[in-house]
Design goal:
heterodimer; A: alpha+beta; 6-stranded mixed β-sheet; 6-stranded antiparallel β-sheet; 33% strand; B: alpha+beta; 3-stranded antiparallel β-sheet; 13% strand
Chain lengths: 481, 273
């Protein structure tokens, strides 16, 4: 899990740095604009809604850009702009204000400054907007659930008092849950003046949840900065920046409470004057992929691009194609029959079949090319001598062969232990089988060839390498004498 | 059936299970919720791969009872494993945000769970660990191939079908292959109807008999009793216990076993003579 987490954070971090940094273009009259794709709303999949902020160098929203100035790309593929609403179109905004009320907020008029700034934000809300207030110190409290009533929100802000530690990540996590089910544009706006020291969750949890629901987290760091050593007072800027950049939000720094009002006002304007764009994704199946969305806005002779991404689950993707099914099933069914079919070709196994086809055979560990003439001779198997001294051998092809001391046998062995009609070897359907013909001294076989496993038989199958003993005379069933 | 041939058939049957799962799943379409889709997909993948692999022994021994029983257990445990594995895999893929490694890891969860289930279906705890390793490798490979083909050709049908075929083939062959690597004891039939067939001694007590329910089921030989003998694993040793009765003679290397005998490598056990 650790490794995965690390890998993921790395990928997200680079993707975020690469994708979410607004591309800044200077215009002819030195006017600087930036575009920021803050939210990708996939709740109406396959329709994807995008919330795009265009601001100038003073962070003022740029309005009045027409629909045809925008181009949307999903994974590099141009898609049609199916829906468009410019900043003048009224539409609801959902905000979750996450407010630090830890002990350190009591100093330097910070809590008062925050209260003022937050109530300015509440004042600028439109009728259809809704806001929730979450406070945190040692623990997280939802002081005011989502509401459009400004009196309730102001009352919640009045009740803020400082005291305790900093459970910042837990509070942000809670804020995302509050906003998760709401449709339309939504933001989490979180402020802290210190390092997280009380959360049960690491920074990764709120980031994952925010990405899942496509909710951007805007973070504000207030007051002194810490260098990252634990136990130190002050904000951990890198964490706040990561939280914002990985989720499509932005990070702001306020050296003192006096700057807060400006930041909250600016953000309120920004949230209320974004462009809303919609398109229908060309990949309408949930297929377990992250899709990159970029929007290009052409402004006079410059163009701005902003990028974000969304993830659709689906570890297995159902798909149907009957021809493909039959086309794949037939070869698989043939594979079931293949070993039996190969066996029917003879007891000689695949290696010999291979050597018949190619002319190559294996001798020990090396492959030897055989001449064309010897190929036909080797079609037969042999009942060859196992121990030196007995020099008899019998070439066996698909047929019936008799072994005994009588001269009429195919293999005549004159020995006291051999009966006149001792045994018979014959091809039976798919293998060679040796039958004892009621001999006195018996016929013994080790199928595997291991002589310690040899046993007396009435009838036994033979394979290449099997040992066969008639009375006291040993043979090996082999490919070549 | 030797273990090598067994590995081959495992792979082919697993592959067919994967292909059938893909086809059946495709009939449901893709437009309903992902969670429901995962439950349906996990169940079919588990049922079809598990069921087909479970039926192999019975199919080749021409025992309908054994094929049916194997298929049922394979499907039952496979479906539970498939659903659990796919839901965990879905979370993993989401956590990793997609991608080749994400997909492969997501499928690994599916393969792992189905592989473990195959071991449990065999009521052999040792096989569960073979299954886990085989299933993980198969899932990882199948998922990687799916994502690679999906990314390269943009087709869900071909990539998904091949991915599931490979998942099934890998689970099947690797369960068998890992079994061959890790198995420490097995019986091979030297003579009789099933000549050449190998039985891994994976359980604590392996039963031998003519009954289809036996682990070493030697059919069609009337000289073998329904429950003929058993082999118990005790601290690395394998002890052959005869089941008393006049029709249940057992011998080891020609010596009749009256009560029990500890087996050594290459011992020849004879039943039904």
């Amino acid at each position: 899990m650790k490794v995965v987490n690390f890998f993921r954070s790395g990928v997200i971090f680079f993707a975020a740095v690469f994708a979410l940094s607004p591309i800044i273009v200077s215009e002819a009259r030195a006017q600087i604009f930036s575009a920021h794709l803050s939210q990708v709303d996939k709740s109406e999949f396959p329709t994807i809604k995008l919330y795009l902020d265009l601001v100038d160098n003073t962070n003022r929203p740029v309005e009045g850009i027409a629909k045809n100035a925008f181009k949307i790309f999903e994974d590099g593929q141009l898609v049609e702009v199916a829906g468009f609403a410019d900043p003048s179109t009224p539409r609801p905004l959902t905000t979750v204000l996450v407010l630090d009320r830890s002990g350190s907020m009591a100093k330097y008029g910070k809590i008062e400054g925050l209260r003022t700034a937050a109530s300015m934000y509440v004042r600028s809300m439109k009728e259809m907007d809704q806001t929730s207030v979450i406070g945190f110190s040692d623990s997280v409290q939802e002081i005011q659930p989502l509401t459009s009533r400004k009196d309730l929100l102001n009352g919640a802000l009045e009740s803020l008092s400082a005291g305790g530690g900093t459970a910042f990540y837990d509070a942000v996590h809670k804020a995302i849950k509050v906003a998760s089910d709401v449709k339309g544009r939504k933001v989490v706006l979180a402020i802290t003046d210190g390092m997280d020291n009380k959360s049960s969750k690491s920074i990764g949890k709120p980031v994952e949840l925010a990405k899942q629901y496509g909710i951007p987290i805007y973070t504000i760091g207030l007051g002194a900065k810490a260098t990252g050593t634990s136990g130190e007072e002050g904000i951990y800027e890198e964490g706040l920046r990561n939280l914002a950049e990985q989720t499509g939000g932005l990070y702001f720094y306020a050296p003192s409470a006096a700057e807060l009002a400006g930041i909250y006002e600016q953000l309120s304007r920004r949230f209320q004057s974004g462009y809303e764009l919609a398109y229908i994704t060309p990949r309408q199946i949930e297929d377990g992929t992250t899709r990159t969305v970029s929007v290009t806005a052409s402004l006079k002779d410059n163009s701005l691009t902003a990028t974000n991404s969304y993830y659709m689950p689906g570890v297995i993707v159902p798909s149907a194609n009957p021809y493909l099914f039959v086309g794949l099933l037939i070869p698989l069914l043939l594979l079931i029959l293949a070993p039996t079919a190969l066996k029917r070709l003879g007891p000689i196994h695949i290696s010999i079949l291979w050597s018949r086809i190619t002319g190559w055979s294996q001798k020990g560990k090396t492959f030897v090319k055989r001449s064309r003439e010897s190929l036909t001779a080797e079609d037969a198997l042999y009942l060859g001598p196992l121990v030196s001294g007995s020099s008899k051998a019998l070439a066996v092809k698909k047929g019936v062969y008799y072994i005994g001391s009588d001269p009429g046998n195919n293999l005549v062995i004159s020995h006291a232990s051999i009966s006149p009609k001792h045994a018979r070897i014959q091809w039976e359907k798919d293998r060679y089988v040796v039958h004892d013909l009621g001999s006195k001294a018996g016929t013994f076989v080790s199928y595997s060839g291991d002589l310690t496993l040899e046993r007396r038989i009435d009838k036994s199958a033979l394979k290449v390498g099997s040992s066969v003993r008639f009375g006291e005379i040993y043979f090996r069933f082999c490919e070549k004498v | 059936m030797s273990l090598k041939l067994r590995i081959y058939y495992n792979a082919v049957f697993g592959a067919i299970g994967g292909l059938l799962a893909w086809y059946v799943l495709g009939q449901f379409g893709a437009t309903y919720s992902v969670i429901l889709r995962d439950i349906v997909a996990g169940a079919f993948v588990g049922i079809l791969i598990g069921g087909l692999m479970g039926s192999i022994d019975g199919v080749f021994d021409r025992s309908l009872y054994r094929a049916g029983r194997g298929a049922f257990y394979g499907a039952e445990y496979g479906s539970i494993g498939g659903i659990a594995g796919l839901l965990i895999g879905e979370l993993t893929l989401w956590f990793m945000g997609g991608g080749l490694l994400g997909r492969a890891t997501g499928w690994l969860c599916l393969g792992l769970a189905v592989g473990i289930s195959e071991g449990i279906a065999n009521k052999a705890p040792r096989k569960a660990s073979y299954g886990a390793l085989g299933g993980s490798l198969g899932g990882f490979l199948g998922g990687a191939i799916f994502e690679f083909l999906r990314g390269s050709f943009g087709s869900y049908a071909l990539s998904q079908a091949l991915g599931l075929i490979i998942l099934g083939a890998c689970i099947g062959s690797l369960v068998g292959f890992v079994e061959e690597i890790f198995r420490d004891a097995w019986l091979m039939v030297i003579s009789g109807k099933q000549e050449g067939k190998e039985f891994t001694l994976a359980k604590n007590v392996t039963t031998i008999g003519r009954d289809e329910k036996c682990d070493v089921a030697l059919y069609h030989d009337p000289k073998i009793a329904l429950q003929h003998a058993q082999i118990a694993r005790k601290g690395g040793q394998f002890i052959l216990n005869s089941v008393s009765g006049p029709d249940r003679k057992v011998s080891v290397n020609g010596q009749v076993v009256s009560a029990s005998a500890t087996l050594k490598n290459n011992d020849r056990v004879t039943v039904g003579y």
